[in-house]
Design a protein that fits this description.
This protein has two domains: 86 residues, Beta Barrel (OB fold (Dihydrolipoamide Acetyltransferase, E2P)), CATH 2.40.50; 105 residues, OB fold (Dihydrolipoamide Acetyltransferase, E2P). It has four helices and 13 strands. Strand 3 and strand 4 form a beta hairpin. It starts with 15 loop residues before the first helix and ends with a strand.
């Protein structure tokens, strides 16, 4: 009668009969893990070129503009027809809060503040250090901004919070980011509607209600999901805005 082999884990070698089964199975498992790793790596989307300069607090100076979202207007080195050119940089507070409370009493005033840059491609934002805003000398410089309507459109895209999307989190969108995005929007961070065309080009539109006011409290259920919305697209300076009724939102498959 043939003896049954039995392997005890603390022995240096396993019986030859068991080894003949285990060795090819182990080799196959290693190859399978390697192949799956390659497949997942190829299928993984590359991270966006977005950055949060955490710990690099800088000094900024400009004019506060509270509407339609909090901006700091900074005079650029460039000029247009001999006149100074302004750069509008969105502002947020530290953590998951918008900057409205910080800048409310400074609307239209020239200020100095400390903050940290957040940026993604050509879009940037400043996270303002709490208590750092002080009025500086001189009058505030509010530059008139031409508003151009681009018509009424029904757009497919994703609603996200601008702070995480622009660089504080990477990735800062899609379902894995849903809870964080809702908390940021609840805290007053401006919402963005991110739209991609058939060629894969991305456009970021600041999302507002038809009355030009934030709609954060009305869009939580649809954040970080593919949705369809109808509204008016307007261009103001370098930014696009989407004025839409939240009741128009429809989920997409």
């Amino acid at each position: 009668m043939k003896k049954k082999e039995f392997y005890i884990g603390y022995l240096p070698e396993m019986p030859e009969g068991i080894a003949k089964v285990v060795r090819p199975f182990t080799a196959l498992l290693i190859v399978l893990v390697f192949v799956l790793g390659i497949i997942f790596l190829i299928g993984q989307r590359p991270f966006a070129k977005s950055y949060f300069e955490f710990g690099n607090v800088q000094d900024f100076e400009g004019t506060i503009q509270a509407r339609p979202i909090p901006f700091l207007l900074v005079v650029s080195d460039e000029k247009t027809e001999g006149l100074p050119k302004f750069e509008r940089i969105p502002l947020v507070a530290e953590g998951k809060d918008g900057a409205e409370e910080l800048i409310r009493s400074y609307d239209g005033s020239r200020v100095k503040l400390k903050g940290t840059r957040i940026y993604r491609d050509s879009l940037q934002m400043i996270e303002v250090v709490g208590g750092s805003i002080v009025k500086s000398g001189g009058e505030g410089q509010i530059a008139p901004e031409k508003e151009e309507s681009l018509g009424i459109h029904t757009l497919n895209g994703e609603i996200i919070d601008s702070k995480c999307y622009l660089g504080v989190m990477n990735p800062g969108n899609q379902k894995t980011h849903k809870i964080c995005a809702i908390n940021c929007l609840r805290g007053g961070i401006p919402a963005l509607f991110v739209v991609r065309d058939k060629a894969g080009n991305t456009s970021e539109l600041w999302l507002l209600g038809e009355d030009g006011k934030p709609v954060n409290e009305k869009i939580f259920d649809y954040v970080a999901e593919p949705v369809k919305m109808k509204g008016e697209v307007k261009r103001r300076g370098a930014f696009l805005y989407f004025y839409s009724n939240p009741d128009s939102i429809e989920r997409l498959n």
